[in-house]
Amino acid sequence: MNGTTTRRPFITGITRAGASLFLDQRTLPRYGVVQSFEADFRAALAELMPRLEELAAERPDDDTAAEAVRVALAEARDRLSEQEAPGLQGEFVRVKRLATSVVHMCEHLDGAQQPGHVPAV
Prior knowledge:
The structure is a single chain. The chain is mostly helical and 121 residues long. 68% of the residues lie in helices and 0% in strands. Helix 1 runs antiparallel to helix 4.
């Protein structure tokens, strides 16, 4: 090894698809399914957020895209800090908020590869 670390590519399409699948649920899934998705979403955010923080830090403070990323990051941090909600319905809603943050992070990461693109938050 040469002492540098390289990150493996993060596959935003697959990650976004999983979050979208959860967001599109029409029926209440079992508690174990909700918890499994939560673990996946937390892992995805743990991977996505530092990358977006780095990208935003490289842009000027008045950059619109960077500001949109910063807002989405703050929202994701708030959602990650939410306590477990009472009941299955409450947990389902809480984890849906995490899924929404995953979708936003994926959109921002994809958008960072396209100059001038500002995804909706």
